[in-house]
Structure formats: structure tokens, C-alpha cells
Amino acid sequence: MALKRALKSNIQEMIEGLDKFNSDPKDGTTRILFTEPELKARNYIKEEMAKVGLSVREDAIGNIFATLEGSDPSLPVVWTGSHIDTVINAGKFDGMAGVVAGIEAARLIKEFGQKHKRNIEVLVYTSEEPTRFGLGCLGSRAMAGELSLDKAKELKDEEGNSLTEVLESLGYDLAEFDQIPVKQGGVFAAVELHIEQGAVLESLEVPIGIVESIAGPSSFEVSIAGKQSHAGGTPMNLRHDAFLACCEIALEAERLAKESASKDTVATVGRVEVLPNASNVISGEVYFSIDIRDSDYEVKSECIDNLMKFIEEVEEDRGLTIKVEKINDDQPTPSDQKIIKILEESCTNKEIRFHKMISGAFHDSMMVGKFAPIAMIFVPSKDGISHSPKEWSDYSDIARGTDILADTLLKLANE
Ligand code: HGY
Ligand code: MN
Ligand code: MN
Ligand code: MN
């Protein structure tokens, strides 16, 4: 018996239910890791998981696991899921669509009595966004064994709280932190549904994307120390202008990305702090971020090397002191060809058009792919907008993606 269709109303209800937990409702959705809105959203989603009959647990970094038991729980599990934390003034779909789709897929499988050998688990990964601690994918990174307790202790938010202090204050047991990593083979397959966060599907008028590879992100924190001085009295040849050096570096990062050997190279400077930030003062201190990504690690590394050389030249030419701290330099993650084939067959059987593509955005699947076979389902983003209050995906598109997800999870859970 084929699975019934996912209910758009369930999906809309859970997405809108989650969106009530928001620390800045006047401008999109802001739900930052372990703040009150995010803790309430965690409780809400755990209730929704329990309503569907899933048994819910958390690990020592707050990854949430909701289990639909199979006939042979001893077999490696099948995973789906995403995140519910957001960037500042975000939309209500980035991450949440995948969590909600996972719950609805589990409901379909359970309520229509579909037998499956393997347990199916719906996850909420802790802190996919770097918003609070400056590093993304904290929960899935710890699962991949790439976030030690010592490293977690060093991660600080703007108030100086460390990730571990926050975890302990919430009752998580750090003695269990070393049990978070997932061993190779422990997860049979992991499929994440996510909004595309770009405009490819919309431009092609195709409702489903099948992700073949997730571009690897690299991020850096740069500080420039120049010489704060008077904007009128200082002759141009005597200036050590920290902000204009930042501008030069930002434009060079853009040029390197545009002219790189890979069509997938992207770069931006998203956050800048200029001191003293006064209209008639030459800035003496600037702190800014650099985000560079590519589906090809060698090409990305060459871009980064060239940018670092350029930064040294700017430091020399302008008589500044420039410090670059590497935050992360992640490898791209390829999807598993067997899961891609199952996704393709599911779309074909349901006569749903699909497009195979890369993901420019990173996702928890990028980390999960280090210990398990992964693949992702994309649903269209209106006007390609994301990380913005204007982010929108049609609930009917998410429901369609959920049908493909449920089908694929069921097939994988019976392999
Ligand atoms: O930045 C990203 O790619 C993700 O949305 N956090
Ligand atoms: Mn995001
Ligand atoms: Mn996301
Ligand atoms: Mn390029």
C-alpha cells in the first residue's frame, strides 16, 4: 500500500507553532541557541514528536532524537532531521522545514502501518547556525568527533559565556560529552529536507532538488589595527585607515571567488565592526568576518591562500597590523549515490520533476556525512531568499518534499 500524502495543514501548523518562539517578532524570526525562545521551541517540538508516538531523548550537547521503533532495533538506524535555531532576523523555514517534514514523515509511516526493520529517528541538531558561538553545526560537529569538550569550553558568546557553561546551566551532563560522537556504521543513512536558500528550483520551475554535494564553508575572523586620526587634518599619505583596508580585502575576496576555477566558489564579508565608527574619524580598529565556500576543496584552498597573501601585502602597503583567525575550514560533503537513486526513483514513481544540484549553504548533513551516507531534498525558496524575514517556501512544496522523504526513509529502513 502506498503511503498517503503528507498533510500540508500539519506542516503549516508546526511551522507556525514554532514561529511563536521568537525574540524579535517585529522583524522576521530570531531564535538563538539556548535562549528562552529556543528552549521553548525545543519543548514544543518534543511535544509534537511525542504526539506522533516517537520516544524522545537528548545527548549531552542537546541534539534531540525522536525514535520510531522498527522490528529490529539492533540494526543501524535511519535518520532525518535538521535545526530549529536561526540567524538574526531570519525566516521561519531554514531548518524548521526539515524538522517538521521529518515528524510528518514519521507520522505517515506509523499511522499507515508501514512495516520497517530499522528504527527511524527524527533529529533536531543543536546550533546549526554560528549565531551565538561563532561556529556552525555544533551538535552535528560533535557527533562527527570534530568538537571536543576542550574546544567547546573555548567557544564563547558575546557575553563571554562558554558553550560548556551554558550547557551545564541547563542541566546537560558534560561527563557524557565524550559519548556524543557517532561511530562509522552506527547510522545506516541520513536524509535531510531543507529549503534551497537559492533560486535555482524556482527558475527551473522544478519542485524538488536532490543535493549531490554540500559546499564546504571556511570562515575567518580578521582584526585590523591602524591609526585612529582626524578625517580632515591627516594628509592622505600619512593615513593608516583600518576600514579602507577591510574594504580592499573584502573586494579582493569577491574578485578571487568570481575568477576562481570553480563556478561554485562564493565569498563575502557579512559582519564588520568599525571603531570608533564616527563620521569624521579615520578608523583605527576594524573587526570583520570572511566567509568563503566551494564544492571543490582544492579550488577553495587556492582562493584562501591567495587572499592571505593579499592581506599581507595590504598590511605592508598601509602600515597596519592585521591578524587572521581561522574559525573553520570544512571539506565539501558528497551525497551517497544509493540514496540519490532512491530519491530519484521516488520522484519518478510519483511523477514529480526533480533537479540534481549542489548546496551552496552548509547543513548538518555536511557533518553527518563524515560518519554516515547522506543525501538532501531541497524544496523551492521564493525569489531565492533566505536568512531574511522575506524567506518563504510554500507549504504544499514542503508537503511534496515530505512525501519523497517518507518514501525514501521507509525504503532505507527496510534495506
Ligand atoms: O550559513 C549557512 O550556510 C547555513 O545556513 N548556516
Ligand atoms: Mn541558515
Ligand atoms: Mn539551515
Ligand atoms: Mn568562480
From TrEMBL:
Binding site for Zn(2+) 2: 94, 129, 387
UniProt keyword terms in alphabetical order: Hydrolase, Manganese, Metal-binding, Zinc
InterPro entries xref list: Amidase_Cbmase (IPR010158), Bact_exopeptidase_dim_dom (IPR036264), Peptidase_M20 (IPR002933), Peptidase_M20_dimer (IPR011650)
Assembly notes: Homodimer.
Domain of life: Bacteria
All copies of domain Peptidase M20 dimerisation, residue ranges: 218-315
Record protein name field: N-carbamoyl-L-amino-acid hydrolase
Positions of Zn(2+) 1 binding: 83, 94, 194
Record-linked CDD domains: M20_bAS
Gene3D superfamilies, A to Z: 3.30.70.360, Zn peptidases
Lineage, top ranks: Bacteria, Bacillati, Bacillota, Clostridia, Halanaerobiales
Cofactor notes: Binds 2 Zn(2+) ions per subunit.
Pfam families: M20_dimer, Peptidase_M20
